[in-house]
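Quick board copy: two proteins, each given as sequence then tokens.
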Amino acid sequence: MKKKVMVVDDSRMMEHQIIRLLEGTDYEVAAYCENGEEAIARYDEVKPDVVTMDIIMPGIDGLEAAQVLMYEHDEARIVMISSLGDNDMLQEVYGIGAQAVLFKPLTREALLGALKKALG
């Protein structure tokens, strides 16, 4: 049985990219959410094994949404995705308890490694 991934990103293109990168793997995109609010609302319905979470989104940003998910769900595993990669942001990502961080543009190897790390 494939591991379920919830993609949270305000760009539908990221969902399509992740679907393509996961083809032929043990992972599948089970849900796509356009923002943090939707991810929080749908988490119980989807019950993902892991969430990929864009950091910069309108409304509740990815950092805040990840904090809420991890507070409400002990089992939540979050891989943060960003186009920015400064030290302050990295400290904040790991400070909230995210299991991994990826930088855009994504590669198949980096994505699979981050998902494995988050679930390991």
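And the next:
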Amino acid sequence: MGNDMTVEKKLLEVNQAISNILVGGQAYKIGSRSLTRADLNTLLAMQRDLQAQLANQDAGLMDNTYLGVFEGR
């Protein structure tokens, strides 16, 4: 995945890769050639990270931040 991809596009790609594994399996063989797809656990971790990035984009940088001012003693 290139650096110019949006978080949304990356998440779509990761979701598709996960779906491919769930439907077609982690690895398969055609004749003498074999293919192993990306590790499912790695994809699931990427999915969680991308979902968190999306949530943070929507929430704003410091939405859950408060400022306390304590004056004098």
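Board note added afterward: The first strand starts at residue 27 and ends at 30.
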